[in-house]
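Quick note —
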Amino acid sequence: MQSKIGTGIVAGLIAGVIFGILMTIMNAPTPDGGETPMMNMVAMVVGSTSLVVGWIYHLFNSAVIGAIFGVFFNKRVSTYKNATGWGAAYGVAWWVIGGLILMPIMLGGEAFGPIANPEMRSVAMGSLIGHLVYGLVLGASYLGIKEKPARRVGSTRGRAPA
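Predicted structure written out below.
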């Protein structure tokens, strides 16, 4: 039997890699009129501008958020339809919590600032799409891992008997 927390962590990391790639190629405007990859903005939350630090922090969050998904949605996730539905809703919830409230505040702005500021609305919409993709991949991955049959030591399944 697989742990719902462990399954959530692995599914969260899978979804986090996909979302991380999106954030690495998406740019956001900077106060000086330039642009920076979204992943660099993630790094700024922990006082860095390093892409590597952004990835580490992002994947840590992805694993934690995946574990929380496992705790709260394990019994609700039984088909790909409801796995992706719950995952999408969960991803949108984290867009509001993380992308619209926590991250702007941690970067010295205001909650909901990304949608209130016309220059940042496209970034907010890109973030919504990224969180939605994260949730869809999280839900589907979670169910796929959850349903994978456990391998048993000494099992002859799939092998010809000796």
